[in-house]
Amino acid sequence: MAKVLIVEDNPTNMKLTCLLLVTAQHTVLTASDAETGLTIARTDLPDLILMDIQLPGMNGLAATVLLKQDPVTAAIPIIALTALAMKEDQEKSKAAGCDAYISKPLRYQELYSTIDAILAKTTHGNGNNHSEAS
Ligand code: MN
Q1: Is residue 129 included in any domain, yes or no?
Q2: Residue 132 falls within a domain, yes or no?
Q3: CA 20 to ligand 1 center in whole angstroms
Q4: What share of the chain is helix, strand, coil (3-state, %, to 5)?
Q5: H or E segment at 112?
Q6: Does a structural domain hold residue 131?
Q7: Minimal CA–CA distance to 80: which of 116, 52, 107?
Q8: How far is ligand 1, taken at its centre, from the CA of residue 126, in Å?
Q9: Residue 133 lies in a domain
Q10: Residue 55 CB contacts under 8 Å (≥ 6 apart), including other chains
Q11: How far is the CA of 100 from the centre of ligand 1 (A)?
């Protein structure tokens, strides 16, 4: 059970992603653009961020770079979401600092297994590894 921030501009994708996370008993925070996502990330310090790559204004890769440069948010794992299932996008999201990559349309098994793997790597027993930032 984690606090997950979803940054996604498409209402249908947002609804589906929220539903899948709530079903897995995660707490969900939402933002429909990168700027709002950055603000929520800094103030609420989620355990995990699902970041759509294609966003209006600042894209998800630029937002990821900013989050990873900021000591307050650098430790938060980021899973990139993109509709473009291209090797190049996978490489770009890795270069930007994303911890994992999921292509849309979302498959719930892949979403759950990726989230579980990331949380298992970053959680050290107390369920919160961001205490240095508080
Ligand atoms: Mn989008």
Answers
A1: no
A2: no
A3: 18
A4: 45, 20, 35
A5: helix 108-122
A6: no
A7: 52
A8: 33
A9: no
A10: 7, 9, 33, 34, 63
A11: 17
Confirm if 97 and 62 have CB atoms less than 8 A apart.
Answer: no
Contacting residues for 103 by C-beta, under 8 A, at least 6 apart:
81, 82, 83, 84, 85
Tell me the CA–centroid distance for residue 83 and ligand 1, in Å.
8
Residue 28's pLDDT is 98
Q: Strands, E, within 1-134: which ranges?
A: 3-7, 27-31, 48-52, 78-82, 100-103
CATH number at residue 43: 3.40.50.2300
Distance 132 CA to ligand 1 centre (A): 32
How many domains is the chain built from? 1
Mean per-residue pLDDT pooled into runs of 10, the chain (134 residues): 96 96 97 98 98 95 98 97 77 93 91 96 57 41
| DSSP letter for each residue of 1-28 | --EEEEE---HHHHHHHHHHHHHTT-EE
| Residue 66 CB contacts under 8 Å (≥ 6 apart), including other chains | 38
What residue numbers bound the domain in which 35 lies? 3-123
- Angle at alpha carbon of residue 65, lines to 70 and 41, rounded to 5°: 55
pLDDT at 124: 55
